[in-house]
Amino acid sequence: MTEIFGDFIEDLPKGTEYLILGFSPASIPLKQRWRNNGLSADFLADYLTTFFPSSEETASHLNKKAEIQSAVSYIANELLENAMKFSVETQGYPISIQLHLNSERIIFVTTNSICREKMGDFQAFLIQLSTEDPLKLYMDRLEKNALEDINTASGLGFLTMIIDYGAKIGWKFQEMNGEKKAIAVTTMVQILL
Questions:
Q1: What is d(CA 105, CA 45) in angstroms, rounded to the nearest whole number?
Q2: Is 145 left (phi over 0), alpha (psi -120 to 50) or beta?
Q3: Which residues pair with 22 in a beta bridge?
Q4: Segments of 11-71 assigned E as strands
Q5: Long-range contacts for 63-71 (Cβ within 8 Å, ≥24 apart)?
Q6: Interhelix angle for 156-165 vs 59-86, to 10°?
Q7: Under DSSP, is residue 109 helix (H, G, I), strand (E, B) or coil?
Q8: Structural fold of domain 2-116+168-192
Q9: Sheet arrangement for strand 2-6
């Protein structure tokens, strides 16, 4: 079983620069790595900006570079937080984040496992995300969060990526070899340069 939602590219563009970070649930519990998400996201953002030549030190070039660095840091952090929060630690399925750069766009790809019981609610949110106005959905989610004491799946990160960064987002759900409790999920976020 493979299901795709949103803007998901099966074959990434060739000839891109890329970086892949992987996290193993076997070394330490992933929830303990939570504090490192920001550090990993900032590393990805700093790494990416090395591909923007500094010979054009104009104010507009520096502003664009700072915007891209901020966007990469925010999106990578959100993706890592979601992957760690919803991953099934007991499965030993690694979490990875990839950052691909070409002349037109930046592509983020995260992979992790998700509990089968949570998959239906998540996919329902993805359908809602693709059929409703993102700004209205964002406002509705903010109001809902304000009324709830605990909310573990608000979707505000994905909505912020769409609204603030013009991101195109897609998901791919796949069976894990012989695993009945979890599904592998790949999240792809694309932003234009």
A1: 14
A2: alpha
A3: 96
A4: 17-23
A5: 68/106, 68/193, 69/45, 70/45, 71/106, 71/165, 71/191
A6: 160
A7: strand
A8: Heat Shock Protein 90 (3.30.565)
A9: 2-6, 168-175, 182-192, 105-115, 95-101, 17-23
Task: Return all residues near 153 (Cβ < 8 A) that are at least 6 apart.
Answer: 86, 118, 121, 122, 125
The structure tokens listed for 23 are 């996290």
Residue with tokens 């959100």: 78
Instruction: Please give the chain's pLDDT, 193 residues, in tens.
Output: 899 999 999 988 876 789 999 987 666 765 667 678 889 999 999 999 888 766 666 777 778 888 999 999 999 999 999 998 888 877 678 899 999 998 889 999 999 999 988 899 999 999 999 999 999 999 988 888 878 766 656 789 999 999 999 999 999 999 987 667 889 999 999 999 8
